[in-house]
Design goal:
It is globular, with a radius of gyration of 19 Å. The strands form three sheets. Strands 7, 8, 9, 10, 11 and 12 form a six-stranded antiparallel β-sheet that branches. It has a three-stranded parallel β-sheet with strand order 2-1-3, with helices on both faces. It has a three-stranded antiparallel β-sheet with strand order 5-4-6, covered by helices on one side. With about 325 residues, the protein is α+β, with helices and mostly antiparallel strands. It contains 13 helices and twelve strands. It starts with a strand and ends with a helix.
């Protein structure tokens, strides 16, 4: 098959996306597919066939390491000169030349449904969830309402006041913990609000849940084993997510009944948000064993060391098989 992987873009998560995309390309090439990676923000020359496109832009090897800090998007936009456009010139034409587009994008364009709707309008096959599910899941305020209506418990929203501390403050449409803070003092709350609003005006303020962090993947309507996330220092922020400073245990060392309850909640959230072939749903448990759903990720990280591939491996699904499965579901 001719497969176009889209990774990068002008999201704050572009480095995470490029790491996912590079690994996906190598995995699918190992299965005999002709696979090309393009950054959707960068303009390309017009080509009339996938073969010509591949000859012009394919690299022999792809690899990308994730820095400890989120990228400087202003500098990136200035370098390529496409302003706030989400797609560079001729990228949509390139998508139409492929048999399927593998979306390895994270945040904004990749997960808010805009790209999915664009591809739908042009009858382009793509991986992951459709535009409606992406839009519902990406806005954490809307997702909370949908999940609560389906019986999935989430941390309660709260007013930004010292009386409610500690609080978690985060952009409503962000990911990878960029702009997310835990505020335990009035000064920290003021800074947390400022940091979140640097990303967007729509923010989420919710009660902080002290406890253990978990994640559950959903693949083709089936839940994967629970994984526990244990940062060595602090909490699961951007640096701890991608710099190898977190222990991840899969299957999680928890009682079977807790694992099954969490898996059922993950599937419930996935279905309530109308998600597609795969997702990853994140949870906290408090000291009393109560389960709280933090969010659902429509395009979770897909490097081999990412959470979803680790869960798939624990279920006996190799990384290459996982990528192949995601493509087959899109077809």
């Amino acid at each position: 098959m001719n497969i176009l992987v889209l990774a990068g873009g002008h999201s704050p998560e572009r480095d995470v996306s490029l790491a996912s995309g590079a690994n996906v390309v190598q995995a699918l090439r190992s299965r005999g597919h002709q696979v090309l990676l393009l950054d959707p923000y960068k303009s390309i020359d017009l080509h009339g066939s996938f073969a010509a496109l591949y000859a012009a832009y394919a690299q022999e090897n792809y690899a990308h390491s994730i820095p400890s800090q989120a990228p400087d998007l202003a500098a990136f936009k200035a370098e390529f000169g496409n302003g706030d456009d989400m797609l560079g010139r001729n990228v949509l034409v390139a998508c139409k030349l492929a048999d399927v587009v593998f979306l390895a994008l994270h945040g904004s364009l990749g997960e808010n449904g805009q790209l999915q709707a664009t591809l739908d309008l042009h009858a382009v096959r793509y991986t992951g969830s459709g535009h409606v599910g992406c839009a519902l899941a990406m806005d954490k305020n809307i997702a909370k309402i949908m999940m609560q209506a389906a019986g999935v418990q989430t941390p309660l929203c709260a007013a930004a006041s010292a009386e409610n501390l500690p609080l978690v403050v985060k952009p409503a449409n962000g990911g990878s913990s960029i702009g997310c803070s835990i505020a335990r003092t009035a000064d920290e709350l003021a800074q947390a609000l400022a940091d979140a609003r640097e990303q967007e005006d729509n923010i989420v303020i919710e009660r902080f849940i002290e406890g253990r962090e978990f994640s559950v993947g959903v693949l083709d309507g089936q839940v994967l084993p629970v994984i526990e996330i244990i940062p060595n220092t602090g909490w699961f922020d951007y640096a701890n997510k991608y710099q190898g400073t977190t222990d991840e245990i899969c299957p999680a060392d928890i009682p079977d009944d807790l694992a099954q309850t969490m898996q059922a909640a993950a599937l419930n959230a996935h279905n309530a948000l109308r998600l597609g072939s795969y997702s990853r749903v994140d949870f906290m448990t408090d000291a009393q064993g109560e389960i709280y759903c933090l969010e659902a990720n429509t395009l979770p990280g897909l490097a081999p060391a990412s959470l979803l591939p680790q869960e798939a491996a624990a279920a006996g699904i190799s990384y290459e098989d996982l990528c192949e499965k995601i493509v087959s579901l899109a077809m």
